[in-house]
Amino acid sequence: MPEEVMDSLERGKRPGPRLRRQMIRIVVTEMMEKSPHVGKKHSTDVAKKMVAKYPSSLQDVIEGDIVGTGYHSIVKQLQNRIENVRRTSTPKIRKRKHQTDVSDHTDEIPLEERAAMQDTYGCVKWNVKFLPLEETQESQQQKMEKLKVMFQQSDANSEEVKCLMKSTFYTQRQHVNQGKSIKCLREEWPFWFDELGMSIHFKELTGIDLKETFTRNLDLKGKRLLDYMTTVCVNKSKRFLQNYARLQRMRGPQSGCSDDVIEMILLLLSYFDEKEESMFFHVEDTCLVEEVQLEQVPLTPTIIVCGQSCYSSTRYMLSLDRNLINTNISSFISALCLMFGSYYCFNIHYSSELASTLEFLQRCFFLINPEKGTKVENKNSKRHLNLNPRVLTLIQELSDHEWCA
């Protein structure tokens, strides 16, 4: 390795993009001299060893949090370099034949099993096989009925609701995994669609505190991400700059945590070329629940914004399968957490229209970091990496930006 590269590695510094590319080229040259038939498994093994030896310099990390396995970005760069080297010397027909013969493991999995993998992705208690020892089917039914009654009461004890939601988690999972409709689930478990009930179920399901985890990581990473978007990305893309200027006009002179979160989400959508209307549906600020034109709303979890923009709205609703499941959400952060939590609680795959934004939020703000699998809906496209390459690129760029800041 060149002295400049080794100096960065030995001192625990992150090599700049130029040095990192130089390092990858040298490593791939050595790998292909050993064997011309280098596959993804070899790249993964090499990347794992590189990161283990120089974690401070090469690990995928944002504000101290390791993203995924920590070595996905090295795997991606090694794979890309190997493909570039082969492209100049391997005829296309032979290359296609090679790719057909040596396929990803996920391509051998039947569609039904692949769907189940997407459902269980990120979960620690997706399918609870046995009732708690102190519970029976009758006691579960009684508690479910009690929760329905309590939902109608304005002074329901929140601690009692938490205990009842937690003790009936088994039945909740049974109902959703059996394929009960969202409308039916809302009738049977109304608290599940409120912030309190959703947080209890999400914690049991994933081991993560939904809103607490998001707000904590917002404090740690939000300003860094916004700074990167508004100082680096605006100079890289004319389209991104135009979107940023539009958002600034909409935001006006307002300032505050909530407005920063709104701007961060909208800029993430712009960065990944994903459409706002896939996540947000706007109605008049005086719109009544029965006036929402649900046939125009996406089937996936969608935030209904009551107002001209997210900045000016004081009320949000949440739609799921074109059913309004929560009609009075007072803050943008609460609406965002309920939307994200719905994907996991109700076995919903990320739509391809929002795949990158949702995975970035999942890994960096909600800290759900599975090493394998994906929650993106299957479009029969081959995935070479378990972690979205576009998300990897942003994580890598943010890591470099943090080091220079």
Describe, in plain words, how this protein is organized in 3D.
With 405 residues, this protein is an alpha+beta fold. It has 3 domains: 102 residues, no CATH class; 70 residues, no CATH class; 141 residues, no CATH class. The chain is built from 18 helices and 6 strands. Strands 3-4-5-6 form a 4-stranded mixed beta sheet. A two-stranded antiparallel ribbon has the order 1-2. Helix 12 packs across helix 16 and helix 14 packs antiparallel against helix 15. The longest helix has 27 residues. It is globular and about 70 Å long. 31% of the residues are buried.
Report the sheet-strand fraction: 5-15%
Envelope shape: globular
Please bin the fraction of helical residues: 55-70%
Structural class: alpha+beta
**Biggest beta sheet attributes:** 4 strands, mixed
* Strand numbers in spatial order across the main sheet: 3-4-5-6
Total domain units: 3
Mean pLDDT: 85
Low-confidence stretches: 89-107
Order of helices and strands: HHHHEEHHHHHHHHHHHEEEEHHH
Radius of gyration: 24 Å
Please provide the count of β strands: 6
Counted by DSSP, the helix tally is 18
State the end-to-end CA separation.
27 Å
Brief descriptors of the model:
four-stranded mixed β-sheet; 57% helix; alpha+beta; 3 domains; 18 helices; single chain; 6 strands; 405 residues; two-stranded antiparallel sheet
